[in-house]
């Protein structure tokens, strides 16, 4: 075959082909040079690969969605030319119409151009690498049952450690504050409650470094205490337990410790790993010890941040003030925030007019773990939303608009969380190995019975994880926890009010309620059964020995074999043995008798086999197996 003929087949001219062959280290003299058939096949393949590589590297950046007109500019073509191509494909667009990303990519590819989506400005800023890491203050959240003293402890710390030292001492509430101790600084989030904690996490804000669980020394562990602990555990945040109100005559810290031992939080002085400290928010007893423990824990965690890059932070609280407009308390995670900076905060933006610290004092800048209240935003963001310093007003407006757009889209299609029915699919496609459940029941006894029954469902491959269990109605905090942990919520003989159902629907959470225990167990069993990875049953079919190896232009390497045992079937699993070792696993891709493709060849007959491996050589043995996938059932 002559080069010009080959070029014609490839749809390029001879000169181009000769150039490509040079690149491929395959020099030919001129278009009249000839190559044999086999070489021509190799050239075709190699030129195809080279073209693909060239297109991959020929990147043009665009914004999707894109109009025909804009795409034409990017591809350096006339819009009318693109429209003609589309019409030939039976697609009718107008010049200013947005076209599908895949259609744009395909046409670009036909012009040997690889379209790549431009990084958004936001992505570019977030990509800035954090370096020069230095120590930052730990961020603490207090959680626990209502009235066990979270607010009192926070107030005590704030009043004793901040107000007394700083001038003026206006203790304005802004959702977070920092205390300076001799041993270091500590930031407290003054938004106690695990619902807020988890709601913030759902917005992507994992800012708490340590959770302090507050328990009344008299009342002990309550359902909400357990909820709070489970929320902290789900966030994988270390826990310190403060046993509060020890000034009270009925205080019984030992009883609390005993209760803690039962819920997998064995206190250190009982041989466990949980740090506990007895405190009184009334007298201040133990508070210094609590602070010391926090600092000790934080030191061990070696918390660090970049204090120089443009700030990234999180909104802790926001409100509309009559005189000052939108006010947002933000906590910086990385970098530095300065007055005059342009920033995006949730879907809003600002040129920061003023910043105040937790004493109400004006500040010019704030660094990591430092809470400040900023003014100047054109709207009120939600807690948990991100604040980002951007280079200029244009980017601020652009990013804010993109975020608004994203929010609108998200409202239309909530994130789909795990549903019992599609567990099997998820396991197969996404290799899910856990079924996470939040379990609620009417009374303690039933809760235990249901949990026991669920745990008895045998499964080695899929772990049943009870993220949280509790007595009482399914509440919004259960739904929020399910949202961040991708769990399903199961209620047994409990009410699920319409508001909670509505929230679950909005968040895409499955909430199932049952009245009869075996129905619940059956459903979960069926799901877990689907979860089980199907077993593969392999049966030996036959064996062939390689007598010789030859090359075919289209099929590649073919092994000329003799079937020694059983039969060889096309498409089945093949193990290539050299000696006793399997050196390759593949499939019988080609099976030939003389020149004919066949489906099977039986014992004592010669055949040609390709298994997609060109290392195969004389003397090798090919064992062929049938694979059967068996869905397993539970006993
Ligand atoms: P929160 O709901 O967890 O924030 O609890 P609060 O801080 O509002 O406290 C609830 C009640 O317990 C209030 O009446 C406090 O005065 C009281 N309290 C809090 N801490 C202590 C304490 O250490 N000792 C005593 N005696 N009372 C306390």
Task: Explain what this protein looks like in three dimensions.
By secondary structure, the protein is an alpha+beta fold. The protein folds into six domains: 3-57, Orthogonal Bundle (Arc Repressor Mutant, subunit A); 59-118, Arc Repressor Mutant, subunit A (Orthogonal Bundle); 137-302, P-loop containing nucleotide triphosphate hydrolases (Rossmann fold, 3-Layer(aba) Sandwich), CATH 3.40.50; 312-404, Translation factors (Elongation Factor Tu (Ef-tu), domain 3, Beta Barrel), CATH 2.40.30.10; 420-531, Translation initiation factor IF- 2, domain 3 (Rossmann fold, 3-Layer(aba) Sandwich), CATH 3.40.50.10050; 536-630, Beta Barrel (Elongation Factor Tu (Ef-tu), domain 3). The protein is 33% helix and 31% strand. It is built from 18 helices and 35 strands. The strands form eight sheets. Strands 27, 28, 29, 30, 31, 32, 33, 34 and 35 form a nine-stranded antiparallel sheet that branches. An eight-stranded antiparallel sheet has the order 17-16-22-13-14-21-18-19. The chain has a six-stranded mixed sheet with strand order 7-8-6-9-10-11, with helices on both faces. Strand 10 (239-244), helix 11 (253-262) and strand 11 (275-278) form a beta-alpha-beta unit. Helix 14 (423-430) runs parallel beside helix 18 (517-531) and helix 16 packs parallel to helix 17 (498-507). The chain is globular and about 100 Å long. It starts with a helix and ends in a 5-residue tail after the last strand. The relative contact order is 0.07. It binds guanosine-5'-diphosphate (GDP). Residues 144, 146-152, 192, 244-245, 247-248, 280-282 line the site of guanosine-5'-diphosphate. Guanosine-5'-diphosphate binds at residues 144, 146-152, 192, 244-245, 247-248, 280-282.
